[in-house]
Amino acid sequence: MIAITDYTPPLSLLIQRYKYYNTPQLAPVLARLFLLHWLQGYREGRWHKPDRILGIPLHSRKRWQRGFDHIELITRSLSRWLQCPYQPDFLRRSRATLTQRSLSAAQRRTNLKQAFQLQGDFTDQHVAIFDDVITTGTTLHEASQLIIRAGARSVQAWAICRTL
């Protein structure tokens, strides 16, 4: 798992503003913060560059309500800066799920069962999956299991913040 910091101010407040107050212009700021952290670890040999980057997608209804997909905006920038392929339709949320924030770890697992679909060939690839916050790891675990079953060699979990 690669995360900049724990879910504490000021980044936690910045993420909340970005997601819930219709400020998509914060995407490059958050992407750049992650990129700088990632580059430092890469130069130190703590992790390797992935072959492909995926973002945890919103369901189409949630995207419509919010007006943008907050993860897609960040992931697009990271993909461009790291020169890694990014196809937003390779990982899809196949059904609407409850908001994870208020759910226990067990409820999160149930909520996300079979919530994602994967397209594309991941055979022998190193894949990074990006989400804004890793709380219990359930979302990234569900998505990474699909990618591993699709033949990926490795999966890295990337996030701005973590609560683990």
Automatic annotation (TrEMBL):
Source organism, top-level taxon: Bacteria
Pfam name, any one: Pribosyltran
Membrane-traversing stretches: none
Gene3D superfamilies: 3.40.50.2020
Classification via SUPFAM superfamilies: PRTase-like
Domain (Phosphoribosyltransferase) ranges: 102-161
Family to which the UniProt record says this protein belongs: Belongs to the ComF/GntX family.
PANTHER family: DNA UTILIZATION PROTEIN YHGH
Stated name of the protein: Phosphoribosyltransferase domain-containing protein
Organism lineage: Bacteria, Pseudomonadati, Pseudomonadota, Gammaproteobacteria, Enterobacterales
